[in-house]
Design a protein that fits this description.
There is one protein chain. By secondary structure, the chain is of the alpha/beta class. Helices cover 27% and strands 22% of the residues. It is built from 13 helices and 20 strands. An eight-stranded parallel β-sheet has the order 11-10-9-8-7-4-3-12. A six-stranded antiparallel β-sheet has the order 13-14-15-20-17-18. A hairpin with a 4-residue loop joins strand 17 and strand 18. The longest helix has 17 residues, at 150-166. It is globular and about 70 Å long.
């Protein structure tokens, strides 16, 4: 692990410090310094292998080439959406030499050919596998051994060399067919083998979610080895598989994920850093389960958390408002900010909104502050007006600042010490504040 130390002026720390020591550790020592943006197949395609009856969503070479073309033609690539990630159900059984391989019917040019297609268009290819003996869908896994095993370790080295030879740029590693009690050994071990290839491969771990879903953890974050995870992986899934729905108790609807982030905010803000990112899972924007305002909430909060921004929808059928939202470079800039800070949450109890309204504040490089004010819709139909002072926003009490509306991409008041706002149910406001003194 490669660690560097920086002193940053921060002017926005709620604890009142004017400077803070940030320890920035490059997970995997692989030089990746921004959360990934792009497209992932799982929500859109699931494990669809039937290309005859479901040609539009079948997990196939054609699907991912079509996505690549849509990213380029729709202007997404130029805004930073460069990863195209396969999520399970693309493999055939290993060949006679034990080599991993894609299904030859659905991927006639193999993963290497698909990676070349991406690279020729300025994109990157991501794949999927499992730390255990098989993937969640039953395809061949990596079977990473928790103890020294000459045969298993040789196979693992061969698999990592295969990924590098294919030209893979990202890998998501699940934990379905494995003993979670060995994860503290197997996931870091896989990191070392990935690093040894010399290829820059973004490493996504499903490690913590299996701890959190276990009976031993009882849904708390305290039993998860967050420090080791952040040292070993570029990003890690924190919660259950996200669903295309706003609220579904016991599952991962959008508001349920937001509640997990707010409840465990102290832990999540501490571990997120450059090269190591909490992953709340895919963006559901463009799918039928969310209204446009709920889609805005998801996009803004994922950006406030410095989270991966991975789409999983038909890019060619996006409405104009949702396309404009996803291409909003001011929100994207908040997500991709060089500090990679994760926003701090405050419930706006002073406005009598109980858990319905939240204030999220995020320090940005250069001393700016990103602010998101969110109404999660508990009091449906009511519109609230309020004012937040510099102190409410975590700034020194007499700080003045210029306001930029990041969603509307418009300048607001200049040289002010408070923000007045009107907040509608199921909606969000997002501002970039630049202190003037």
């Amino acid at each position: 692990l490669n660690c560097r130390f920086f002193i940053r002026n921060t002017r926005i720390m709620r604890i009142g410090l004017l400077s803070a020591l940030l320890v920035v550790c490059a997970a995997l020592d692989n030089g990746i310094h921004r959360p990934p943006m792009g497209w992932m197949s799982w929500e859109y395609s699931g494990c669809q292998r039937d290309c005859v009856n479901f040609p539009e969503t079948c997990v196939s070479e054609k699907l991912f080439e079509d996505v690549a073309d849509a990213l380029v033609e729709g202007g997404f690539r130029d805004k930073g959406y460069t990863y195209v990630n396969i999520d399970d159900c693309y493999m055939a059984p290993r060949d006679a030499q034990g080599q991993l391989r894609a299904d030859p019917t659905r991927f006639p040019n193999g993963i290497g050919g698909l990676a070349t297609y991406m690279h020729e268009r300025g994109l990157k290819l991501g794949i999927y596998n499992d730390i255990g003996t098989s993937t969640c869908a039953g395809d061949p896994g990596l079977a990473v051994s928790a103890v020294p095993d000459a045969h298993a370790d040789k196979q693992l080295a061969q698999d990592m060399a295969t990924f590098a030879a294919w030209g893979v740029d990202s890998i998501k590693v699940d934990g379905c067919a494995a003993d979670k009690n060995t994860f503290n050994v197997t996931y870091p071990k896989l990191e070392r083998y990935l690093n040894s290839t010399g290829r820059q491969i973004f490493y996504i771990c499903s490690w913590p979610v299996y701890f959190l879903l276990s009976d031993a953890c009882n849904g708390t974050f305290s039993c998860v080895p967050w420090k080791l995870i952040a040292e070993s992986c570029n990003s890690w899934r924190v919660f259950k598989d996200i669903m295309d729905v706003w609220n579904l108790p016991g599952h991962a609807g959008i508001s349920n994920v937001i509640d997990v982030w707010a409840t465990n905010n102290a832990t999540l803000t501490q571990i997120n850093r450059v090269g190591a990112y909490n992953d709340p899972d895919m963006l559901m924007i463009g799918n039928p389960g969310l209204s446009d305002s709920q889609a805005r909430i998801q996009f803004v909060l994922w950006a406030m958390w410095s989270a991966p921004l991975m789409l999983s929808t038909n890019l060619r059928t996006l409405s104009d408002p949702l396309r404009a939202l996803l291409l909003n470079d001011e929100i994207i800039a908040i997500d991709q900010d060089a500090l990679a800070a994760s926003a701090t949450a405050t419930q706006l109890a002073s406005l009598m909104l109980d858990r319905s309204a939240q204030l999220w504040t995020k320090p940005l490089a250069g001393g700016d502050v990103a602010v998101a004010i969110v109404d999660l819709g508990v009091f449906d139909g009511e519109v609230f007006k309020g004012t937040l002072t510099a102190a409410d926003l975590g700034l020194p009490a007499h700080t003045r600042f210029n306001v930029r509306d990041a969603l509307q991409r418009e300048d607001g008041p200049a040289g002010v010490s408070s923000i007045s706002f009107t907040l509608r149910p199921y909606d969000v406001l997002c501002y970039r504040l630049t202190p003037t003194k």
